[in-house]
Amino acid sequence: MQDLLEVKNVTKAFEKTLAVNEVSLGVPRQSIFGLLGPNGAGKTTLIRMITNILVPDSGTILLEGVDNPQERMYKIGYMPEERGLYKKMKVGEQLLYLAQLKNLSYRDAKDKLDFWLGRFDIKDWWNKKVEDLSKGMQQKIQFISTVIHEPNLIILDEPFSGLDPVNSNLIRNEIYELRERGATIIFSTHRMEQVEQICEQIALIHKGEKILDGGLHEIKNQFKENIFKIEYEGVLPDLAGIPFTIYEQAEQAISLQLKAEESPNDILQYFVDKGTVVQSFNEILPSINQIFINQVGGQTDE
């Protein structure tokens, strides 16, 4: 199946700064795709080209196989990290205005707005000014303005910034629901634990270039270090002379790192033969945060 979004060899420079350099990636239909990278990596510049805010110096961007920036504008919902609400406007009139900018009629905009305000149980906010809302409340309004026109592609830049755990879960559940209803979501962040929770595919951008991309599980397997963890009952046998490298030891658990020629079965057999009561035995894959740090060398452009 063709990817919903295809970015092909896209480049963008500002004077002498090469912000995005020959980046190519594909975002599968109805997926949650993580666009990762440190601050200053080029993520926002790439997003602004996808959303037609900036024009690439070279390369092509296809949505549903079509390179048409004007048409693309109405099929994308974009929630920027720097929130773009009008502070003095009332919630209801602002959302109606923004929805009509996305090519909805007044009647359709009103119907969809009634749905979303009811879904978030905030119908009584209609006449509140944005400046009178908390940051978390403003975040909900920004989210509604992003999805109200039912875009095919939704781009969320740090959508959980400033949200408490309850509202974070609320927005996360809405992301899953939108995906189930057919939307494709690009989730841009530098918060790796959030990536682990919700993303299926990722791409890592660093210094304007794509470092890696692919399925979350496949990438974790690509960078695994042959570390296996045993959880046990009772007392471990004497570890003097153990034929494996001890990676980490904790209460009722030990992690071992194997050499290329060693087998995980050898570990399990070794401890069973020593009379150890093994409760669990698992391979430990690196976190996305570990992979991220290793790939960017601990350096950012902040």
Keywords:
four-stranded antiparallel sheet; Rossmann fold; alpha/beta; about 35% helix; about 300 residues
Any chance you could write out the topology, listing elements then pairs?
Blueprint: E1 5-14, E2 17-27, E3 32-36, H1 43-50, E4 58-63, H2 69-74, E5 76-79, H3 91-101, H4 106-119, H5 135-147, E6 153-157, H6 165-180, E7 184-189, H7 192-198, E8 201-206, E9 209-215, H8 216-222, E10 227-233, E11 245-250, E12 253-257, H9 264-273, E13 277-284, H10 288-296
Parallel strand pairs: 3-7, 3-8, 5-6, 6-7
Antiparallel strand pairs: 1-2, 1-4, 8-9, 10-12, 10-13, 11-12
Helix pairs in contact: 3-4
Description:
Helices cover 33% and strands 28% of the residues. It is α/β, with parallel strands linked by helices. It folds into two domains: 217 residues, P-loop containing nucleotide triphosphate hydrolases (Rossmann fold, 3-Layer(aba) Sandwich), CATH 3.40.50; 60 residues, 2-Layer Sandwich (Alpha-Beta Plaits), CATH 3.30.70. The strands form three sheets. It has a six-stranded mixed sheet, sandwiched between helices. Strands 11-12-10-13 form a four-stranded antiparallel sheet, covered by helices on one side. A three-stranded antiparallel sheet has the order 2-1-4, with helices on one face. A hairpin with a 2-residue loop joins β1 and β2. α3 packs across α4. The radius of gyration is 24 Å and the shape is elongated. The chain starts with a strand and ends in a 6-residue tail after the last helix. The mean pLDDT is 90.
